[in-house]
């Protein structure tokens, strides 16, 4: 039996395991998908050593950038984004395992958000600066939208939450949450943006999907904004992951 899996921490919120195992069962694929909850990215080496039947991995928070030094190569797409969420297992010289990093987040995100966009959406705020945020930046760029990263602390090429003004909110009508704020079980938190300036012309897109409606989304909906969670993105990128592993 082939084995696939997910590395990250924590993983209690993830739907990937259920999605893939249901896929394997319904399509009579002799495989299983396992969660590997590791507290340090270097523990991935032990996961590989202890699971010789592994054929591919997904990577989630907080290791999408940290995993890159552990890989043998990454695709140009993943290098440009600066993050990896799919690891393809290949045979290298003398049969040695070769780990190749890919990024499927960008494809899933673009296909998920594109139907929501109209001619008024030119600028976006990306909340968070982790691995997923990089894919979102490049995805929006490919859709013709200029983005600015928002960070809790001052960073180069970022604004802080305290610097978001009414004028900012009026000009940046797409807001994407890439942080874990609001994720189960801590569902009573959300990014600290001035929600009083959200309008019906805004899109509030949350990469989180557990719970179905985060506090970030609820606050946006109360102001008439279009809101969407990350479940469709997850499913779309999962299909791409499967194609990468089996190509």
The span between the termini is 18 Å
DSSP helix fraction: 25-40%
Strand order of the largest sheet: 2-1-3-5-6-4
| Major sheet description | 6 strands, mixed
So what's the overall shape? elongated
Q: Tell me the strand percentage band.
A: 15-25%
Derived structural class: alpha/beta
The Rg value, from CA coordinates, equals 18 Å
List the helices and strands in order. Answer: EHEHEEHEEHEHEEHEEHEH
Give the tally of β-strands: 12
Counted by DSSP, the helix tally is 8
Q: Which residues sit in consecutive blocks of at least 5 with pLDDT less than 50? A: none
Instruction: Output mean pLDDT.
Output: 96
Keywords, separated by commas or semicolons:
247 residues; alpha/beta; six-stranded mixed beta sheet; six-stranded parallel beta sheet; 8 helices; 12 strands; 30% helix; elongated
Describe it:
The chain has 8 helices and 12 strands. Strands 2-1-3-5-6-4 form a 6-stranded mixed sheet, with helices on both faces. A 6-stranded parallel sheet has the order 9-8-7-10-11-12, sandwiched between helices. The protein has helices at 16-26, 44-50, 76-81, 105-113, 131-142, 166-171, 215-222, 231-245; strands at residues 2-8, 31-37, 54-59, 73-74, 86-91, 97-102, 123-127, 146-151, 158-160, 174-177, 203-206, 226-228. 30% of the residues lie in helices and 24% in strands. It has 247 residues and is α/β, with parallel strands linked by helices. The mean pLDDT is 96. 40% of the residues are buried.
Brief overview:
By secondary structure, this protein is α/β, with parallel strands linked by helices. The protein contains 8 helices and 12 strands. The protein has a 6-stranded mixed sheet, with helices on both faces. Strands 9-8-7-10-11-12 form a 6-stranded parallel sheet, sandwiched between helices.
């Amino acid at each position: 039996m082939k084995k696939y899996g997910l590395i990250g921490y924590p993983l209690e919120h993830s739907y990937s395991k259920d999605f893939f195992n249901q896929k394997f069962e319904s399509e009579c694929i002799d495989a299983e998908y396992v969660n590997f909850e590791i507290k340090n990215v270097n523990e991935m080496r032990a996961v590989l050593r202890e699971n010789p039947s592994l054929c591919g991995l997904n990577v989630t928070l907080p290791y999408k950038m940290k995993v890159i030094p552990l890989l043998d190569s990454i695709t140009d797409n993943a290098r440009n984004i600066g993050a990896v969420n799919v690891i393809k297992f290949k045979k290298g010289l003398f049969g040695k395992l070769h780990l190749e990093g890919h990024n499927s987040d960008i494809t899933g995100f673009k296909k998920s958000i594109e139907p929501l966009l109209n001619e008024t959406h030119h600028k976006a705020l990306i909340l968070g600066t982790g691995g997923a945020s990089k894919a979102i930046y490049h995805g929006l760029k490919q859709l013709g939208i200029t983005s600015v990263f928002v960070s809790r602390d001052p960073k180069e090429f970022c604004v802080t939450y305290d610097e978001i003004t009414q004028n900012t909110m009026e000009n940046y009508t797409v807001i994407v949450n890439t942080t874990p704020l609001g994720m189960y079980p801590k569902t009573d938190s959300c990014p600290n943006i001035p929600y009083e300036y959200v309008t019906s012309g805004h899109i509030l897109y949350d990469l989180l999907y557990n719970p179905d409606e985060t506090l970030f989304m609820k606050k946006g909906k109360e102001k008439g904004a279009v809101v969407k969670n990350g479940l469709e993105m997850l499913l779309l990128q999962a299909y791409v992951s499967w194609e990468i592993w089996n190509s």
